[in-house]
């Protein structure tokens, strides 16, 4: 629907956030995806999250690979730089960008083809390195742009539009992330904005790699009977295990009462590195999202029954991100004064002595 | 032997060793000793793609005449590897010497009557004097260094000084090593007529010079260029460049109080990721680079096309090794010229720099970052194994403290504010180079970087005209690059008279070409010489080609890649160019060029 141009002028009464911007100012160009695409709902959730987080748009860096999902980085936060790279290689671009400037916010948007097939290697290694970024995997089980081939996340027995059943076992991004030591692992559904927006905010606040696998039905190629990634199937077969609430640093005091609304012992408060808090409301009393092994077992039991566990599945705020591991200084590496980077002519003369 | 046959400071020693036995330190000690005696030396390592147990050779050329290449001669062979004895014996030049461990007699060594075989019971002496298997193995090497000291008249005080520096923190090792040197020295003095007619004598020709390999020099160039992000995947023979960068940065860029570092050193999961990290970092305003070899460039092709089309600076060091495929990873060639010049699918062209020695590795490494940012494109520094991993004697490096990085056309927040609208791929200056903005600076400067079709505004396009406008401008930018890259180095014939026959070459062929020019001049054959230092070729190269009727193109690959590039990218008629090729994996010797040119002339090339 590229022929529709968004009006530039916003209504003067639109609410503004702490940096004086309206929600509209976090939008991007008009989506060119199919009407009803799950990805567009995720884009809307990202816009909402950035608005609520009061992010200066230029502080947001948007990265993607190739595919329907990767196009969406053009559809939000027009004031932030975007980098639509090559298929499956966004994690390496994100790693380099983050290495150059640790002070910006990095959001990568990828798909199941981009992340779990051609880019499976890079996904694994960006997790290992614990690059400080939010990674949204828009997961629909098919290749949309090439018209409906199964992707690596397609479940065994799930049917294509033509009626073929998938035989190969699926790669579950959540299990992979848990196995590789990811410190923030969540799953959501594009149709559940109420769950997704707080997860995105918590993911941004997390220091380190935050994966949110979002089931995002493909209305054109994978929303039919027999598909395990249709709107209907996902609604039927999801179990939210932890509800998340992100609380800005300045609101922590006033929000204390709200947590009391929940049954004793079910709310867990996790302080984040940026001073905010994530409050986890456990919908199952026996589930502890800080226990990686238990989370893995829980997810696997559900996967066996072709059910999705949603919510913040695992969180660990004690990990060190890539910069902490590399002990880089506080000045971004793209801004270190040149004089600090080498010892000049005199230092060079001294170095020469080593080679005589 | 008559005094007339005494040859001083002009000889080649070759060491035949087993790798993993510690021979490198002994061979390095001999090299450094001669260097410190003020005598110019060349050290070349011919090693296997292996950690322990395979044959390895090291060659030292002592050359008062300052030659840089291999001579092709072997005057003294130190044959320490029984497995390669037969081959090593054959390689000694007539009239030469062969030293071997006579603890184990080798009657086969006596098969040649035109060389002198010197047996030294190295193992026997070591077993008697040293304890433990490791020490006995290591000291055997030091022992032969002592033997050479006596045979070649090396200065024992210099050797002691070097050992004292190497083992500054372990004085006991200085004494045990010196003991081995002295035993070898005394044994040789007692057993042979020392020194040999070929020998070393102190000179004063290495002052103001260093012995350094090109990879270390390039790493230092990266440090001085202000590169803060290095990403790579380990591959021979490039790894030492990254190791050196890290070692320099650990020393020079770590805050002693906090331990915090002003650099990021990223070991990637593969070369695809390595170049991705470089592009991400460069796009975000850091100076970033990678080092790799031909197989790595193959893997990086996809991203290189993106970098070309989306106009992202990047610096790559291709330390070329023998291809195709895995090839011979520890042997040298200049075989990635075309791969790098046109890397990636679609119409792409890249800037290449060709350093000839470690001085240029340092200078061109630093320059590569300026060029990459000025031109907003990948720049390849074309090393090879010979340059990257061998020790070269070069003048001390210098740095001008007034020099500052040239970041090219990067808009500041204020400059962005002054624009009515930022458009990433406009060419307001007419030089083909657009303006870029960095993330985080201004929402007005934000744009969407893409490898898909884009208009000059930066917006996605599938429009025929808009697409073509951008790729035509990229061509114009490549024309501008011709004026920015380092000029070729021209050398006239020794008699200073103009000449219509020339030799054109690049990179590590330089030493061999210069030596060949001397040899050919002895025969009355005169040539002009042009050493190109960059692609695209500038107008200076075009003019030089026009001025010469016949041009020999010397290069180290089978398919004449430099010659191909000249015919594709300059106005030179193809039939003007004649190839002199060397591609067996060893560094090119001057004899290859002398013989090649004589042969061509005999066949009437110059007629």
List keywords for this structure.
heterodimer; A: 356 residues; alpha/beta; Rossmann fold; ten-stranded mixed sheet; two-stranded antiparallel ribbon; 12 helices; 12 strands; 19% strand; B: 607 residues; Pyruvate-ferredoxin Oxidoreductase, domain 3; 4 domains; eight-stranded mixed sheet; six-stranded mixed sheet; 39% helix; 20% strand; globular
Secondary structure: elements and pairs:
The complex is a heterodimer of chains A (356) and B (607).
Chain A: H1 38-52, E1 60-64, H2 68-71, E2 82-84, H3 90-100, E3 105-111, H4 112-116, H5 120-129, E4 133-139, E5 142-143, E6 149-150, H6 173-179, E7 184-189, H7 193-205, E8 209-215, H8 231-236, E9 238-247, H9 252-260, E10 267-271, E11 277-282, H10 292-304, E12 308-315, H11 322-326, H12 344-352
Parallel strand pairs in A: 1-2, 1-3, 3-4, 4-8, 7-8, 9-12
Antiparallel strand pairs in A: 5-6, 7-12, 9-11, 10-11
Helix pairs in contact in A: 1-7, 3-5, 6-10
Chain B: E1 7-8, E2 10-18, H1 23-36, E3 41-46, E4 55-63, E5 76-79, H2 85-91, E6 97-101, E7 116-120, H3 122-129, H4 133-152, H5 156-166, H6 171-191, E8 198-199, E9 209-213, H7 214-225, E10 229-232, H8 239-252, E11 264-267, H9 271-283, E12 288-292, H10 294-310, E13 314-322, E14 328-332, H11 337-341, E15 351-353, H12 358-375, E16 378-384, H13 385-389, E17 391-395, H14 413-417, E18 448-450, H15 464-484, E19 489-491, E20 501-506, H16 510-522, E21 528-532, E22 534-535, H17 539-547, E23 550-555, H18 561-569, E24 577-581, H19 590-602
Parallel strand pairs in B: 1-8, 2-5, 5-6, 6-7, 10-11, 10-12, 12-13, 13-16, 15-16, 20-21, 20-23, 23-24
Antiparallel strand pairs in B: 2-4, 3-4, 9-17, 13-14, 15-22, 19-21
Describe this protein's structure.
- The complex is a heterodimer of chains A (356) and B (607).
- Chain A is of the alpha/beta class and 356 residues long.
- Chain A has one domain: Thiamin diphosphate (ThDP)-binding fold, Pyr/PP domains (Rossmann fold, 3-Layer(aba) Sandwich).
- Chain A contains 12 helices and 12 strands.
- Chain A has helices at 38-52, 68-71, 90-100, 112-116, 120-129, 173-179, 193-205, 231-236, 252-260, 292-304, 322-326, 344-352; strands at 60-64, 82-84, 105-111, 133-139, 142-143, 149-150, 184-189, 209-215, 238-247, 267-271, 277-282, 308-315.
- Chain B contains 19 helices and 24 strands.
- In chain B, strand 15 (351-353), helix 12 and strand 16 form a beta-alpha-beta unit.
- In chain B, helix 4 (133-152) crosses helix 6 (171-191), helix 7 (214-225) crosses helix 8 (239-252) and helix 9 (271-283) packs parallel to helix 10.
- The longest helix of chain B is centred in the first third of the chain and has 21 residues, at 171-191.
- The radius of gyration of chain B is 27 Å and the shape is globular.
- At the A-B interface, strand 2, helix 3, helix 5 and helix 12 of A face strand 9, helix 7, strand 11, helix 9 and helix 10 of B.
- Strand 2 (82-84) of chain A pairs parallel with strand 18 of chain B, so a sheet runs across the interface.
């Amino acid at each position: 629907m590229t022929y529709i141009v968004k009006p530039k002028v916003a209504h003067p009464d639109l609410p503004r956030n702490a940096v004086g911007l309206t929600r509209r100012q976090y939008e991007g160009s008009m989506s060119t995806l199919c009407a009803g695409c799950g990805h567009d709902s995720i884009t809307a959730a990202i816009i909402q999250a950035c608005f609520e987080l009061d992010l200066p748009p230029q502080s947001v860096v948007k990265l993607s690979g190739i595919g329907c999902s990767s196009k969406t980085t053009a559809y939000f936060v027009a004031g932030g730089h975007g980098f639509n790279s090559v298929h499956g290689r966004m994690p390496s671009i994100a790693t380099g960008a983050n290495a150059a400037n640790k002070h910006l916010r990095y959001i990568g948007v990828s798909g199941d083809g981009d992340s779990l097939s051609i880019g499976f290697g890079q996904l694994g290694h960006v997790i290992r390195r614990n690059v400080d970024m939010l990674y949204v995997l828009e997961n629909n089980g098919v290749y949309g742009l090439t018209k409906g081939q199964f992707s690596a996340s397609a479940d065994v027995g799930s049917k294509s539009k033509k009626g073929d059943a998938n035989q190969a076992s699926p790669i579950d991004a959540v299990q992979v992330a848990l196995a590789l030591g990811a410190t923030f692992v969540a799953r959501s559904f594009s149709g559940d904005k109420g769950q997704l927006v707080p997860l995105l905010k918590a993911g941004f606040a997390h220091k380190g790699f935050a994966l949110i696998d979002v089931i995002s039905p493909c209305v054109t190629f994978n929303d039919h009977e027999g598909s395990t990634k249709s709107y209907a199937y996902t609604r039927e077969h999801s179990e939210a295990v932890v509800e998340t609430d992100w609380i800005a640093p300045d609101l922590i005091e006033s929000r204390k009462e709200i947590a009391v609304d929940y049954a004793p012992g079910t709310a867990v408060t996790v302080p984040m590195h940026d001073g905010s808090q994530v409050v986890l409301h456990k919908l199952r009393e026996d589930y502890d999202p800080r226990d990686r092994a238990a989370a893995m077992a829980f997810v696997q039991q559900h996967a066996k029954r072709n059910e999705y566990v949603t919510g913040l599945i695992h969180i660990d705020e004690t990990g060190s991100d890539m910069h902490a591991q590399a002990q880089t200084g506080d000045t971004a590496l793209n801004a270190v004064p040149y004089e600090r980077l080498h010892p000049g002519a005199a230092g060079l003369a001294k170095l020469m002595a080593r080679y005589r | 032997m008559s005094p007339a046959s005494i040859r001083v400071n002009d000889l080649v020693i070759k060491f035949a060793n087993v790798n993993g036995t510690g021979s490198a330190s002994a061979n390095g000690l001999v090299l450094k000793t001669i260097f410190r005696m003020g005598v110019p030396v060349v050290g070349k390592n011919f090693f296997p793609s292996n950690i322990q147990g395979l044959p390895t050779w090291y060659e030292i050329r002592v050359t008062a005449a300052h030659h840089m290449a291999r001579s092709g001669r072997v005057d003294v062979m130190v044959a320490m590897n029984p497995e390669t004895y037969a081959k090593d014996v054959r390689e000694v030049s007539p009239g030469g010497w062969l030293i071997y461990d006579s603890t184990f007699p080798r009657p086969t060594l006596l098969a040649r009557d035109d060389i002198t075989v010197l047996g030294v019971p190295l193992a026997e002496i070591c077993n008697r004097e040293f304890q433990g298997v490791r020490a006995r193995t290591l000291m055997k090497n030091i022992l032969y260094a002592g033997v050479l000291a006596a045979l070649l008249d090396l200065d024992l005080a210099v050797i002691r000084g070097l050992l004292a520096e190497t083992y500054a923190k372990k004085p006991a090792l200085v004494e045990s090593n010196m003991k081995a040197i002295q035993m070898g020295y005394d044994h040789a003095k007692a057993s042979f007529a020392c020194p040999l007619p070929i020998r070393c004598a102190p000179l004063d020709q290495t002052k103001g010079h260093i012995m350094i390999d090109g990879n270390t020099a390039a790493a230092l160039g990266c440090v001085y260029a202000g590169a803060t992000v290095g990403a790579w995947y380990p591959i021979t023979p490039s790894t030492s460049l990254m190791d050196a960068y890290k070692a320099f940065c650990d020393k020079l860029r770590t805050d002693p109080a906090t331990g915090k570092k002003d650099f990021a050193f990223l070991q990637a999961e593969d070369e695809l990721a390595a170049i991705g990290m470089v592009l991400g970092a460069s796009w975000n305003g850091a100076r970033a680079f990678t080092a790799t070899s031909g197989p790595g460039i193959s893997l990086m092709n996809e991203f290189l096309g993106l970098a070309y089309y989306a106009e992202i600076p990047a610096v790559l060091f291709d330390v070329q090794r023998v291809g195709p495929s895995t090839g011979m990873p520890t042997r040298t060639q200049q075989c990635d010229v075309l791969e790098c010049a046109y890397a990636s699918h679609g119409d792409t062209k890249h800037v290449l720099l060709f350093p000839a020695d470690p001085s240029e590795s340092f200078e061109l490494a630093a320059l590569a970052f300026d060029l990459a940012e000025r031109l907003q494109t990948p720049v390849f520094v074309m090393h090879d194994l010979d340059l990257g991993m061998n020790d070269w004697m070069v003048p001390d490096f210098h740095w001008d403290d007034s020099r500052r990085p040239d970041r090219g056309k990067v808009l500041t927040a204020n400059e962005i504010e002054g624009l009515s609208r930022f458009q990433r791929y406009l060419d307001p200056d007419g030089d083909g180079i657009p303006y870029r903005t960095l993330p985080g600076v201004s929402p007005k400067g934000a744009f969407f970087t893409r490898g898909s079709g884009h208009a000059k505004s930066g917006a996605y396009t599938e429009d025929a005209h808009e697409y073509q406008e951008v790729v035509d401008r990229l061509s114009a930018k490549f024309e501008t690059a011709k004026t920015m890259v380092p000029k070729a180095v021209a050398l006239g014939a020794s008699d200073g008279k103009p000449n219509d026959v020339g030799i054109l070459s690049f990179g590590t062929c330089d030493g061999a070409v210069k030596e060949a020019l001397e040899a050919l001049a002895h025969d009355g054959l005169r040539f002009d010489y042009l050493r190109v230092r960059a692609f695209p070729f500038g107008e200076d190269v075009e003019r030089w080609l026009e001025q010469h009727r016949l041009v020999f193109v010397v290069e180290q690959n089978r398919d004449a890649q430099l010659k191909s590039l000249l015919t594709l990218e300059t106005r030179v008629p193809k039939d003007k160019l004649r190839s002199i090729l060397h591609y067996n994996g060893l560094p090119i010797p001057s004899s290859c060029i002398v013989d090649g040119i004589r042969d061509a002339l005999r066949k009437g090339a110059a007629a």
